Amino acid sequence: MLYLLTTFILSVDNFLNQNIFIFLISFLSNTFSAISGGGAGLLQLPALILFGIPYHQALASHKLATVALGIGGSLRNYKSLRKDIWVAWQILVFGLPGVIFGTYIVVYISEKYLYLILAIISILLAFYSFLTPDLGLSSGNIKLNLVHKIRFFIFVFLIGIMNGSISSGTGLLVTILLIRTFGMDFLRAISLTFLTVGIFWNFTGAIFLSKIRSVPPNLLIILIIGSFVGGYFGAHLSKLKGNIVIKKSFTTVCLLVGISLLTKSIKTFYIN
């Protein structure tokens, strides 16, 4: 009887410790993501894999949880989204087909090549942001000609494919694309990224991956709560601190995501 009671107490204690750890990881990663415009998968996705969840199930769970990040961030910044609704529609119309396509091709294309491509892009973005002092610090409204519109649509579709297949870092790419294409500042671009990538892209990706049903429900609930609270809190901090702090966070996260993906790519090349 004493043995059973001791075993029960230890199992409960282990369960609580695991859930607290997952919540803290989710909260911290999504808070940082809400400030920088992406990179939640840098901590959250590896943490899920660490707990023994297979990659594709972890990816789908991460995507569904980051929908809560998008909702939390959008609720805090909903007022700044009103004038950019038309841009949001364009991101959804041209990006969602890419996300869906990405969920299908992920099983046919070696992840190592996708990791390598996104790693190089992320590291280049970090250096570009660092070497461009005024990037995203002021907001404007650039009028696009036909060529610029087509280029924007193509980039959105390609980033959508990456989002559906490997997820990590694609919010950062959309953020910088909005800044360069429309002359937005970081706060405005990240608010739009929350709405489009955070909510709609990630939800669509999670549904089409169709791997979340075998993930423990309690784990998914904790991830969603941590992501929502972290998203709202991070968006609140970003409004308080302004574009300079956001830009520094963006540069840091781009570099960390790039190094992380490059490491993964090198490991997969070495193994295979």
Description:
With 272 residues, the protein is mainly alpha-helical. It has one domain (2-271). The chain has helices at 2-36, 44-50, 55-76, 85-105, 111-131, 146-165, 170-182, 186-209, 217-241, 243-271. The chain has ten helices and no strands.
Helices, strands, pairings?
Blueprint: H1 2-36, H2 44-50, H3 55-76, H4 85-105, H5 111-131, H6 146-165, H7 170-182, H8 186-209, H9 217-241, H10 243-271
* Head-to-tail CA distance between termini: 51 Å
**What is the H/E order?**
HHHHHHHHHH
Average pLDDT figure: 78
Q: Which term fits the overall shape?
A: globular
Strand portion: under 5%
Global structural class: mainly alpha
**Radius of gyration over alpha carbons?**
19 Å
Taken together, the total number of domains comes to 1
Number of helices: 10
Tally the beta strands.
Answer: 0
- Tell me about the biggest sheet? none
Low-confidence stretches: 1-13
Report helical residue fraction. Answer: over 70%
